[in-house]
Amino acid sequence: MNDINAWVWWLVGAAALGIPLVLTAMPELGMLALGAAAAAATAGLGGDVVLQVVVFAVVSFALIAVVRPVAARHRAQRPQLATGVEALKGKQAIVLERVDGSGGGRIKLGGEIWSARALDIGQAYEVGQEVDVVDIEGATAIVM
């Protein structure tokens, strides 16, 4: 074991951290793997063990401190292009059959005819009125 260089051990450690990264999708493991790769480069350039450990710790911590908040912010953002039912929310529609709170009416939304009901149970919309789609529940548009 003494004839294997330290950089090889660091690369083995990087691979050992990379495998669970792929299996668990935990980005922190990838950042630790990159820290181990940086320590392997330090060992390959002749750095002593203390320097290797310091490089591993600094690179890993820096990546976690910088990349993790950015990734969390991107994960929290809604997609900029709404598709499917989400794209219909907020659109305007034309009442084709009287719409009230009971849900028996029809609207024309995006070129298609949808069943609809009023958001406010006491409100009714007559034929020809423009309404705004608030939500979609199954195949029924909720309008106001």
What is the secondary structure topology, with strand pairs?
Layout: H1 6-24, H2 27-44, H3 49-76, H4 85-88, E1 92-97, E2 105-109, E3 112-118, E4 130-137, E5 140-143
Parallel strand pairs: 3-5
Antiparallel strand pairs: 1-2, 1-4, 2-3, 4-5
Helix pairs in contact: 1-2, 2-3
Folded structure, characterized:
The protein is built from 4 helices and 5 strands, in the order ααααβββββ. The chain is of the alpha+beta class. It has a 5-stranded mixed beta barrel with strand order 1-2-3-5-4. Strand 1 (92-97) and strand 2 form a beta hairpin. The longest helix is centred in the middle third of the chain and has 28 residues, at 49-76. The N and C termini lie far apart (75 Å). The model has no long low-confidence stretch (mean pLDDT 89).
Number of strands: 5
Strand order across the largest sheet: 1-2-3-5-4
**Spatial shape:** rod-shaped
Report on the biggest sheet: 5 strands, mixed, barrel
Radius of gyration: 29 Å
Strand content: 15-25%
Helix-strand topology string: HHHHEEEEE
Mean pLDDT: 89
Query: Could you estimate the helical fraction of the residues in percent?
Result: 40-55%
Decide which structural class fits the backbone.
alpha+beta
Total of helices: 4
> How far is it from the N-terminal to the C-terminal residue, by CA?
75 Å
Low-confidence stretches: none
Question: How would you briefly describe this protein structure?
Answer:
By secondary structure, this protein is of the alpha+beta class. The chain contains four helices and five strands, in the order H-H-H-H-E-E-E-E-E.
